[in-house]
Design a protein that fits this description.
heterodimer, A: about 260 residues, mainly alpha, two-stranded antiparallel sheet, 13 helices, about 5% strand, flat, B: about 260 residues, alpha/beta, Rossmann fold, 2 domains, four-stranded antiparallel sheet, 11 helices, 10 strands, about 25% strand, disordered N terminus
Chain lengths: ~260, ~260
Amino acid sequence: MSALAGFLDRYQERESLLHRLDARAKLPAALGFIVAVTFTREGEWLTLALLFAPIPLLVALSRLGAALVLRRSLLALPFVATAIPLVFTRPGDPVFELPLTGWTASAEGIRAVATIMARAWIAVLTAVILVATTPAVELLRALRSLRVPALLISTISFAYRYLYVVGDEAQRMIRARDSRSATIPGARAGRSVAWRAGVAGRMVGSLFVRSLERSERVYAAMQARGYHGELRFLHNPPLPRTDLALGAALVAYGALVQAAAYLR
Amino acid sequence: MKTNGATPGIERLAASGMAALEVDDLRFAYPDGTPSLRGVSFRVAPGEKVALVGPNGAGKSTLLLNLNGILRAHGGTVRVFGEELSERSAPLIRARVGLLFSNPDDQLFSATVLEDVAYGPLHMGLPEDEVLARSREALRAVGMAGFEDRVPHRLSLGQKRRVAIATVLSMGTPILALDEPTASLDPRSRRELIELLDRLPLTILVATHDLGMVSDVLPRTILMDAGLAIADGQSRLILNDAVTLGAHGLEPLSAHGHPHA
């Protein structure tokens, strides 16, 4: 159902300069810029600020709206939070002590975690903007032109294609179950949590079996159309020079900021 | 099948003049904004057997999903034996409206046929011996007695459909709403299913393209197109109205023959 498509697909339809840019320029530019960001040393606040500077510009150019980009970038927070223990494990000047635990936070630890978080946030923002302005199909095409192995690309594109099918299947099963989950007056409905968990477990199992059977059918259908281990694609149109130049500009800016930081 | 204690008997209800199902100005749109139901109204008396026909995308399946609160209408009301469908009443309504989905694989999720048929009554909190009695009775009613310990995904499509019907019968719902029950069935399985629908003493609503089945066992037809009920009346009149049928992407029965004549 279309609800699921809206949930899974991160692409946002807009009319903007960033949307029009060729994915083969956008993807390497975003990756290159993220690599540049990862080179930032601890406590280089000026470098971080300079690297953050293009983000508001990109958001404006993409017409995505700051709120959407911010909201999506927060999804990466739980992963970044795994760096927090560094605050206590890194030796250095004690700043405060966590009550009851006897753990001492060090200034160096706080600085390290703040840097890691800022770096990760800039990288995530870049990726969010890339994915929101580029349809998934074009990202795959760009990966191919970057000579990513065909097998990997096939795997990603199948995952993308059949995630919807399996998701829809799961949704229909849940509807069918809910439809039979009735209550009658004078009886407690739903039995026990364990029983309901057992039902959910069997649903997952049958979804897995159905996915496996589907994969066999899909593979047979592909073989029937001449598949023998490699997907063939239509040739790509030439990559516009201006798109390439704009992508290169972003990477060059990141590299320049880092070079200045390291030479200082 | 006997109905559960929560619902009065069909004969008494029919005599009282209360509708089994009352749909009033029902409206629904999918999240992408496509309107699917644009104000559908009808009334079904207890024991009536009604066909919902119309082209693909007419809103038939969406309507069925709105009858027991799987989808929440954006406007209008659904009343089942006088009880209005709402967030709160949905679990009670589901004990009265059994929904059969078009793909039985969506419906059958348990390891064995018996477990699946037992799901509904078990969820209601009925005692185990009654659950077992109901489940066996439901399987017998659909002609699948003896298949209790079979694995659902090893059954033929016709058998899966009948087991799926049993999963709803075991709940004792007085209303049965079926989505495309005869699709892709071979002639014999189709015939058996049609006879089963004819036999069941329930209020039945069937969304279907199988006009042969409609003329055989469903005396009343509601013709839907583009989210509206276009026509509502006796099946034999609507099914012979070539002009109206043609205008909504359907063909009168004689045009595609009587496959089971």
